[in-house]
Amino acid sequence: MQTNRSILLRGRYATVGDYVALTKPRVMSLVVFTALVGLMVAPGDIDPFAGMAAILCIAAGAGAAGALNMWYDADIDAVMARTAMRPIPGGRVSRSEALVFGLTLGVCAVLALGTLLNLAAAALLAFTIFFYVVVYTMWLKRRTPQNIVIGGAAGALPPVIGWVAATGNGGIEPLILFLIIFLWTPPHFWALSLNLAGEYTRAGVPMLPVVAGRAETGRQILLYSVFLALISLLPWALGFAGAIYGAAAAILGAIMVFLSSQVHRSDDKQRRPARRLFAFSILYLVLLFGVLLMNATPYAQPR
Ligand code: HEM
Ligand SMILES: CC(C)=CCC/C(C)=C/CC/C(C)=C/COP(=O)(O)OP(=O)(O)O
Q: Helices in the chain by DSSP H: which ranges?
């Protein structure tokens, strides 16, 4: 349903704020934070200016991916109340303007990262944008309920890009950071979409709650949360983070599993457990990566 405000705003000229909105700034801020953690915990001392340049390039790449996602998804965004106010369905930015903006920003971000840092990081950034826009948005999102499990790989890559930008190489540590975000994405998103199943049905998007129902979604949320809680201990278990991180990961993981079990037990009339899990999922990732940043073991001195 369209709000009065969106009707009033329809057709007004685009502002800088509309272009900022195309980059999905709130979601991308956490994406960029995880990239920063990947960059900072990597071995060696990266030059602060090079580090800042890398983060700016990753932020621009993530923003480009958000704009290209909104370009392609403008039709379904127009149908859902949560997204109907976005710049394209709101009539303030045209689809072709969003496409040009997204492509330009993306190309500049990749070229700058390749020039200022290294080619491997630039190739990974290009691959991540491609994966989110083409594999998730254009291919999987409208076709399979496993869309966000597979597509979630794109959201899990930024800390790996950060690490590769700093070192020019991969490693077991960035792989673990990737796995943490990969396993975190299903509980994060399915918790939100449980309460929005009606909207996704109307938009024709086969999200898991639409296709498999509440009980099965709750079961899978719980399963992913248990794996997440276990895998999040690996940085401590393998010695690249200290005991403070280990304790924080255990506590945060236990809360995640507890809230997921409440969602698993909830019925259609109870909206609060899923809302609480969604909100906590964001805090979880901020705190887990924040503590990792402060408690990472210096690379050359394993525990
Ligand atoms: C395929 C993977 C993902 C999907 C489908 C997904 C989906 C969503 C959706 C639909 C929202 C609702 C709010 C909005 O429209 O802004 C949201 C919020 C959010 N997501 Fe995700 N997300 C994914 C991965 C991620 C990743 C990887 C991160 C960061 C590491 C992230 C961080 C956030 C944050 C911070 C919010 C709250 C934004 C706000 O305050 O409005 N998400 N996500
Ligand atoms: C560096 C780089 C390229 C990072 C990209 C990171 C990435 C893939 C983040 C995904 C987060 C996100 C907003 C998913 C939204 O799904 P959706 O598009 O289905 O949600 P919507 O309905 O809100 O549009």
A: 4-9, 16-22, 25-41, 48-72, 74-79, 95-116, 119-130, 147-156, 158-167, 172-194, 197-203, 208-231, 234-237, 243-265, 272-295
CA–centroid distance, residue 302 to ligand 1 (Å): 34
How far apart CA 78 and CA 99 sit, in angstroms, is 17
Fold observed for domain 171-303: Four Helix Bundle (Hemerythrin (Met), subunit A) (1.20.120)
pTM of the model: 0.94
Prediction ipTM score = 0.94
Which residue type does 42 have? A
Task: Give the model's confidence band at 265: pLDDT under 50 very low, under 70 low, under 90 confident, else very high.
Answer: very high
Looking at the chain, which residues constitute the CATH 1.10.357.140 domain(s)? Answer: 11-170
How far is ligand 1, taken at its centre, from the CA of residue 28, in Å? 8
Q: Do 237 and 284 contact (CB within 8 A), yes or no?
A: no
CB 254 within 8 A of CB 229: yes
Choice from 37, 188, 228 to test ligand 1 binding pocket (greatest atom count within 8 A of CB): 188
Residue 267: DSSP 8-state:
-
